[in-house]
Design a protein that fits this description.
heterodimer, A: 263 residues, alpha+beta, 6-stranded antiparallel barrel, 30% helix, 24% strand, B: 268 residues, 6-stranded antiparallel beta barrel, two-stranded antiparallel ribbon, 9 helices, 12 strands, globular
Chain lengths: 263, 268
């Protein structure tokens, strides 16, 4: 009897909440940041948080020093391409870690994480792991990967290094299929490897907003070279014709531990 | 390949010093600093709130890790957090957590709810802290956060010895009263000593914090199913844009050898 009441209470509250809230799940038009459900932040909430934050040191965050703009597509569907704003930390000379956002605005949504490593470290990965990674040579040389606001000579220097690296990126928020909240499993993403892949409207939109020309950048980067050993055959694994899609599977959480729990 | 691959066994957790790679060169430093000055970092500027707590791997709940969340609030009902393994400058980015109000959580499809965890227990019991912030200030926000739910993907399983991030992300769960959700006392002690705080004192001061009327039964699902979640990556046919069927691509040069014509979809 008590459980029935609990179930009923839950259902009532869920339906009330669903009625109030816009559908979280796609399919549908691309949801913009304004579609993130929720009330605007109250002044009191903001003051409480700002007050607290003044007292805190934010060391790992303060090490994020580079904004990089590029494009990702889903590792099983190249038709789904998104603009990806990377906010990166050079962890050491060979490893970068980046937070991925859907824009460079204040209300940008945190949509994923990318790790970038040099060729040397990439080669040290197990072969099965290499298949999750993508090369950066094409994106860099074609000019579509760039550092907004950075003067060309400085950008060029950074690109020289990036052209030889490999990246691994997962996205958690499929806003492009209409999700107004981050739903489902993480999505492995991939990067462009050749001309003819990047959707022209997407490219043109970025060029316009940042007042850049990919063609011009391509010209400036003609002297750059990719990995010493050539792009590794195990990277960009989708080029073999097989993409990688994720699925979630239930597994035993902890052997033996639950034996004493009353269900 | 799965997030639950490689049972750690005797593997020793890797530390920031274990991350392979050279020391940053002078030019790296200069470029880095230069870029930091010229570029704007609007999305990052909002990551102002540091939370220290613990998370547990849903596919192996013996593995508990101390986490450092840096959170940004998008609106009254939604926060997004970058999660690191320490609060030091050498902190490794180990994942992302989204935190939503009870209101938003209740509106999620049931299948989605199963991937989320509740925060009430860890807040009420002093596990969740804002280092450096007086408890009285922390409590102002905690009353609201006590009713939230989180979804946390860990992208770097450093505690099983990974020196680099390997495999797909793993789903994490939160501390709970029920075993194996309880955080090991030695971990709590170590954290308390590091920050000169007392988790038990905080629990005492938070006695008056009320949680949700009822924690949704689909969150923290392991409590009733004894099961967690693994993420598998499976091979599927790749869907390409028209104009670049693989047969036309010269794989050595990665250049398409046919022109991109019209935009109808092609599938291998």
């Amino acid at each position: 009897m008590q459980r029935d009441e609990t179930d009923r209470a839950i259902r009532e509250r869920e339906s009330a909440s669903s009625a109030r809230m816009a559908t979280a799940v796609g399919p549908g038009p691309i949801r913009g940041p304004d579609d993130v459900p929720g009330e605007p932040t109250k002044t009191m909430t903001m003051l409480k948080e700002r007050g607290a934050s003044v007292m805190q040191s934010l060391k790992p965050i303060s090490r994020i020093h580079q904004h990089l703009c590029a494009f990702h597509f889903y590792a099983y569907d190249m038709r789904r391409q998104v603009e990806a704003h990377h906010y990166c930390t050079h962890y050491n000379e060979d490893v970068h870690q980046c937070a991925i956002f859907d824009s460079d605005k204040e209300n940008a949504r945190l949509i994923g994480v990318e790790y970038i490593v040099t060729e040397k470290l990439f080669k040290s990965l197990p072969d099965e792991e290499k298949k999750l990674w993508h090369s950066h040579e094409y994106e860099v040389k074609s000019g579509v990967l760039f550092l907004p606001g950075i003067p060309q000579p400085i950008e060029h220097s950074e690109m020289k290094m990036l052209a030889k690296t490999y990246g691994k990126v997962f996205h958690f928020w499929q806003f492009d299929r209409g999700d107004s909240l981050p739903l489902g499993p993480p999505q492995l993403m991939m990067a462009l490897t050749a001309d003819g892949q990047l959707q022209q409207e997407l490219a043109a939109d970025v060029e316009k907003r940042y007042d850049v020309s990919f063609a011009e950048k391509r010209k400036n980067r003609e002297d750059l070279e990719g990995p010493e050993g050539g792009v590794h055959s195990l990277s960009n694994s989708w080029t073999s014709g097989k993409g990688l899609a994720s699925a979630i599977r239930p597994v035993e959480s902890c052997e033996g531990v639950f034996q004493s729990v009353h269900l | 390949m799965s997030s639950s691959d490689i049972s750690p066994g005797q593997a020793i957790p890797s530390t920031p010093e274990d991350v392979p790679g050279g020391q940053k060169s002078a030019s790296s430093h200069i470029l880095g600093t230069g870029a930091g000055i010229i570029q704007s970092f609007k999305p990052i500027n909002n990551f102002q709130q540091h939370v220290c707590t613990w998370a547990i791997f849903s596919h192996d709940m013996k593995r508990q890790i101390e986490t450092h969340h840096y959170c940004s609030r998008l609106n009254e009902d939604f926060l997004q957090c970058l999660v690191y393994d320490t609060d030091r400058a050498d902190g490794r980015l180990i994942g992302v957590e989204y935190i939503i109000s009870e209101r938003l959580f209740l509106g999620l499809p049931d299948e989605e709810k199963k991937l989320w965890h509740s925060h009430f227990y860890e807040i009420k019991n002093g596990l969740w802290v804002n280092p450096g912030v007086p408890e009285i200030v922390q409590k102002l926000e905690l009353k609201q956060l006590a009713n939230t739910y989180g979804k946390f993907w860990c992208t770097w399983q450093f505690d099983r010895g990974d020196r680099l991030p390997l495999g797909p992300p793993a789903l994490m769960m939160s501390p709970q009263a029920q075993a194996p959700g309880q955080i090991r006392p030695e971990l709590i002690k170590e954290r308390d000593e590091k920050y000169h705080i007392s988790t038990s004192e905080k629990a005492e001061s938070r006695k008056d914090i009320q949680g949700p009327e009822l924690i949704h039964p689909l969150s923290d699902l392991w409590k009733t199913t004894a099961k967690g979640w693994a993420v598998d990556l499976k091979e599927v046919d790749m869907i390409l844009r028209a104009g670049t069927p693989l047969a036309d691509m010269d794989r050595n040069t990665n250049v398409a050898t046919t022109e991109d014509s019209k935009g109808d979809e092609s599938r291998l």
